[in-house]
Amino acid sequence: MFPSKTMLRCRILLVALSLLLGAHAAFADSREIVLPHGNLELTGKLEIAPGKTLADGAVLMLHGNMAHADMEIMRMFRSQLRKAGFTTLAINLSLNQTRRQGMQGCDEPLTHRVEDALPELGAWLDWLAQQGARGVTLLGFSRGGHQVAWFLAARPHPLVRSAVLLAPIVGRDGTAPERYQARYGKPLEPLLQQARAHAAAGNANTLLDQVGFLSCPAARVSAAAFLSHYALAEQHDTPALLPRTRVPTLIVVAGGDEIARDTEARFRPRVDDRRLQMVVVPGADHFFNDLFGEDAAEAVVAFLREQRGNH
After folding, report:
1. Residue 18 forms part of a structural domain
2. Is residue 3 part of a domain?
3. CA-CA distance, 67 to 94, in Å (whole number)?
């Protein structure tokens, strides 16, 4: 006996509802986290992989210069990692603003220093530990890759088991005097001298007006922020930081990187195929656009699975 049209409609509705509920369950555990930090509130997006809890570990993800947790490359990696069974926490650096979201604009005063990321990473790791996480991989993109390396060298945390540096900024990338001159049409050294004079006089928060800074052609920037990004110290040499780290680390190089140039050649002497590994994605630009993102994600997932098997 064939089912009636009414019964068929009911079955179709039940199947559709089941699929909808299943899809909802797979993506339901995604939430915004607000974390008090000094006089600021930090924000992050936690996405628990299906069938997992924080006790299974997490990937703490850090964006690039003046960017945010929802920039395209962060969204793509979150999706790929979640499909592979890895929980992610993508954070927004505060850049000295409370509950910051989206790209940092150039119209307001810029006061953030490169090293400000270190205590914020530490605060998120402490939060993850309090939530029951048993192991964390730090993943940093571009400037975030450099900041992750700096954190690992300067402030090792017991929760961190491994690290991934995606197209990490290396040394003087984008901040060398010749590149500054070419980009902004002004010499770098006079501005550094001006910023140093303010800092020496105890006025590091004084704003330099109408200066080129990162992606901003004419910004108001504190002397401290300008010195942190352009008066390069040994902590800016990402490859030199790696021997001081203690966890297995994967460096993912974009073969056609136009921002972090010569990355492979600079990191290659540090690679030992055990604690420090490197994968090159041929032809990829700095942001791993198009299918290059999938190639990079596959390399990251393989590394994370290898590390998971080692613990």
Report:
1. no
2. no
3. 10
